[in-house]
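FYI - complex with adenosine-5'-diphosphate, inputs then prediction.
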Amino acid sequence: MGEFDLIERYFKRPERHTARVALGIGDDCALLQPAPGTQLAISCDMLVEGRHFVATMDPFKLGHKSLAVNLSDLAACGARPLAFTLALALPRADEAWLAPFAQGLLALADAHGCELIGGDTTQGPLNICITVFGEVPVVNGRSQALLRSGAQAGDDLYVSGNVGDARLALEVLRGSVSVPEAVFNAARMRLETPTPRVALGLALRGIANAAIDVSDGLLGDLGHILKQSGVGATVDVDIATTLVAAYAYSTGATGQFDINFSPDHWRRWALSGGDDYELLFTAPTSARQAVAAAAQSSQTTVTRIGQIDAEHGLRLVDAQGQPVSNRYASFDHFA
Ligand code: ADP
Ligand code: MG
């Protein structure tokens, strides 16, 4: 199977003529037609074998995750997905890998009305690079995009869904901890097939002051909001810890079980685990009802985990309000 057969067979689909995609795969460029009064939101993420996923990862799930991490960036901006490109380096044209990879990728794309409009295909070590394009309205000359730089002192700080599960699954896969199978299975789904919070991001336009998606760890990604907004924050680490779904499972649904690691691990995973793809955002206290309504309309849980302070720096407190020292550094590829 040659390069062009491969593209034709797995990635090119019948023309759909969506309102925004004027020309898809097959020419030198694709053509996008953003709606009048909108901006294009663009983001690119690369997944490298051995770094972001293991060689044995199920190709269907890898297809899903490759697009999910990109859609998560659009969600964090409050952008509506339009289209994406796929640059793929493959060791060989292996049908048993390509077919499920394309299925996983395109199923998530279809769920979000996000069309594959082009890409590049080359032989080489497995590497998946996706660029997504989304749309954000401009109202009265103001972009409705949610930015990292908009947090205000006094804002509530929220995170969607659960954090820490992906890291828990990774530690189990690495053999550094063991947990009951049901807990691992729940966590593994979060690692391998994360749900991008696109509907929540859209619902938060005009409500949230700032947002980011949690990819490198909650506290580290919060740090980007604080720096770019010129503010500080206080975070309740005990609330955040309950957001490891497996933790809730272990303490609630099934009672305590024996685990060969300390409770501090739960905090570590929630606060610095990474690969969560949840939205971390701030909103004025006057918007609490609007935030609850956005959570409900997008069918996403949202938890208030702290507040934004005028005083710079990050303060961690426990359920009793006592200070907790910050030993929860985020992931950094070059640190
Ligand atoms: P060019 O050499 O002009 O860059 P290519 O021969 O690489 O074009 O690609 C032919 C067409 O197939 C282009 O429209 C390109 O966007 C598309 N394409 C190539 N690889 C992929 C891929 N992995 N997924 C989707 N479209 C692709
Ligand atoms: Mg090319």
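DSSP finds eleven helices and 14 strands in the chain. The longest helix spans residues 59-77.
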